[in-house]
Amino acid sequence: MSQGSSNVTGDVASDVAIIGGGIMGSAIALRLCQRGLGVTVIERGIPGAEASSAAAGILGPQMEAEGPGPLLELGLKSRALYPALAAELRELTSIDVGYDRSGVLAVAFDEAGEAALSARRAWQLARGLRVESLSGEAARAREPALGPAVRAALAFNDDAQVVARELARAFSQAAAGAGARFLTGRYVRRVLTDKGAVTGVELDGDVLPAAVVVVAAGSWSGLVEGAGVPATVVRPARGQLVSIETRPPLFRHVVSAPGGYLVPRRDGTVLAGSTVEMAGFRKEVTVGGLAAILTMARTVIPALADAPVTGSWSNFRPFTEDHLPVLGATSVRGLVLATGHFRNGILLAPITAQAIAELIATGHAPIDLAPFAIERFAMRTTWD
Length: 384
Known about the structure:
alpha/beta
């Protein structure tokens, strides 16, 4: 799939056009530019201002995985890239993305939850992962602010976190510094093809020629004509979050609980989330959503009841039914997909960028992308 600059010429042409300037699109742009390709990123708003910046920034493949499988393996590979990535982005942009191997405590409130934690511990140990089982008392010895409702926990000491907003800013600045051109405030109307191959994208009255088009538009991927992502495959899942201020900080570990999570930042801010709502593109913050999040927060860390709420927001995660991203080449030559990351976009950005850039540059991905191919939905959807 490698395309040289001789295939497309002129000031407005690119080797690669990337639809979407969030963390995913910006990360892919950075890796492609570092390989010497000409890249244009088209973003409808401000790069990284949508789901990328709104995310909690948990790097938790062990926390998120429901069992062994391709999502876990992809997440573990990507988590391992973060220490070097954080250093690289700091060197390129002077931005500290807040990488912190804080660990995650997954807690249970009842017998059924405790049994679920035990089952999770068993398969993770069988996979060779580090996981530690804690009683409620042992969990409170580690994090004294945990409430009495916590009766058991698992400690995932290798899971970590970053500050999503800073990561989004660092990726876009690093990509621009490496030579990527960003077209902001522009809408891609359709992907243009001829004889089964990509020729570029149509913007508002303009055409951007490109030999390769990468669809990295998150929840909006299904709205782009010709992008090869039916709106039934990647859909928006609204997530609401709340920021809470604690001074001094009450706890250090990310805490995953039934109904949500709490992410403590070094500055004392706690992010509490999150709902998963199939509400279309409605970005409201609701009474019900906030009530559920704040009840969870108070149950897990009772002292948060007296802490001030400093903000609330919502945004859209690109949801797929099997919770796996949609990655790789398509039946249209030059059309590549990097979308559908659902709750794992921050975690999976490094490995996605690495894989997609190598696929475009060499024709071969460094990892097996077959489990993430769009074709897995062929039997479940009607193509336009």
